[in-house]
Amino acid sequence: MDILRGEYVAKIAAKSWNGKVKIITGIRRCGKSYLLSHLYKQYLLQQGVQEDCFVEIDLEPKSNIAYRNPNTLYDFIMERCKDKQRKYYVFIDEIQLCYKVKNTDIDESLVPEEDRELLYTTFYDVLNDLRVQPNIDVYVTGSNSKMLSTDIVTNFRDRGSEIMVYPLSFTEFYSFSGLDSYTALGQYLTYGGMPLAVLESNEQERRNYLVNLHKNVYMKDIVERYSLKDDIIIDSLTDTVYSAIGSLSNPYKFANTIKTVMGQKTTDKTIKGYLTYLEDAYLISEVERYDVKGKRYFENIKKYYAMDLGLRNARLNYRQQERSHLMENMIYNELIRRGYNVDVGVVEVERMVDGKRQQAQYEIDFVINNGSERIYIQSALNIDTDEKKNQETFSLRNTRDSFRKVVVLDGNARPWTDEDGVTYVGVIPFLLEKVI
Fold first, then answer.
1. Which of 129, 216, 267, 413 sits at 20 to 30 Å (Cα–Cα) from 140?
2. Within 13 Å and on the Cβ side, how many CA atoms surround 112?
3. Phi, psi angles (nearest 5°) of residue 377
4. DSSP assignment of 216-277, as one string?
5. How does pLDDT run across 108-144, given as a tens digit for each residue?
6. Which residues partner with 373 through β-bridges?
7. Is the pLDDT of residue 145 over 80?
8. What is the C-alpha separation between 32 and 166, in angstroms, rounded?
């Protein structure tokens, strides 16, 4: 069964022949390769591109290990694109597996210490050369955010176009699930959106797939990539972060939890580095806290969310299935999937307690800043009593501004707005109809 990821195909097509390398990245096994080599290729074929105008190479299989050498990869591609009268589409899968090779024809004694990296040929050199060939349009996939966060800035600057691919959205899942919307939502909150997991009809096989994927692909990849001596601390941290989705924390608190609950000694410095490893593997997202009134960020306390709930739940053996936390995580993922910049909001309010003025902080789940526009979003299972409604909207009402305020509720409720200007909407129309 094809899952037609039309939005991504359109995004890639819009960047074709723009003189830049199209970099398709995201968590491993989320469908990047399928998107490029099947869905986008089918689109191009339908546009009249001939089959022999595609040059495709996947660097992951052992059979193609020779092409991880950037010089070999370059020669392979140039040989197949030598007809300058034709236009070629070059697809390179898992480009981050391409290693650097030392140039033997350079006198090292002439190269300053700070420029030693220039002694090596890397895949960036290959891509930059291919990029300027008038008859070649280059597309690559990669599963490591470091390739984009650091190296791309240094090596590509404005010469690369990123297309971030996420696990299936609820809309994508629902479109082929054959389930009613509420049942589909329950399935999605439990098993997430990894394509091969949701396509598996056997529930036990689906669970086994997610457990093995997390353990034998993501965690093993982190241990090997960063040459970790053991996986005990990174495993403990992963469980701790997944257990605390949507809760405020920091490396120091995580280190203490691991020491207290799991009996493992570690430091906040180690934990900070390991959190970066998990982010680089796209397993988690870090979200900063923003003071709405003070217009400043809090540096020490942040929130963390799982990139895919199915992977998170499988890792925790389907314990800790609080629907409120899962729904909050799902809403966050949907917002970043739509391309928004998302922060956790904080509103400081002065209140009278026992006749004394006290300053207290109240949380807004998500603050979207989009230029001069801002939207506040609160996730709540229900507001079935006046007390519950006041509790969920207190922070929103105390922003004292006119920006849009939305409370997302569990279920199918249609949008409505109260006398304070707060809009309420069920999570299902929020996801399917993009109601914000």
1. 216
2. 2
3. -130, 130
4. IIIIHHHHHHTT-S-SHHHHHHHHHHHHTTTSEE-HHHHHHHHHHHH-----HHHHHHHHHH
5. 878 888 888 888 998 989 999 999 999 999 999 987 6
6. 370
7. no
8. 9
Amino acid of residue 232: I
Contacts of 171 (CB under 8 A, 6+ apart): 431, 432
Concatenating the DSSP letter of every residue in 361-414 gives: EEEEEEEEEETTEEEEEEEES---SHHHHHHHHHHHHTT-S-SEEEEEESS-PP
Q: In the chain, how long is the greatest CA-to-CA distance?
A: 84
The angle subtended at Cα 139 by Cα 136 and Cα 140, nearest 5°, is: 135
The pLDDT tens digits for 272-299 are 999 999 998 999 999 999 999 888 888 8
Contact predicate 59/98, CB 8 Å:
yes
Per-residue tokens: 166: 């996420």
Q: How far apart are CA 324 and CA 321, in angstroms?
A: 9
Beta bridge partners of 216: none
Integer Cα distance of 171 and 174 in angstroms:
5
Q: What is the CA radius of gyration of the chain?
A: 24
Paired strand residues for 353:
356
Tokens of 415: 């949008």
Average the pLDDT over 194-208 and give the result: 95
Neighbours of 326 (CB within 10 A): 22
Q: What angle do CA 80, 81, 86 make, to 5 degrees?
A: 130
Give the relative orientation of helices 232-243 and 268-280 as an angle to the nearest 10 degrees: 80
Please state the φ and ψ torsions of residue 369, each to the nearest 5 degrees.
Answer: -105, 120
Q: Residues 254, 240: contact at Cβ < 8 Å?
A: yes
Report the distance separating Cα 163 and Cα 246, nearest Å: 26
The fraction of the chain above a pLDDT of 90, given in percent, is 76
* Higher per-residue pLDDT: 145 or 325: 325
H helix count then E strand count, the chain: 19, 16
* Burial (Cβ within 10 Å: 0-12, 13-18, ≥19) of residue 126: buried
3-state secondary structure of 216: helix
Express each pLDDT in 295-337 by its tens digit. 888 888 999 999 999 999 999 999 999 999 999 999 999 999 9
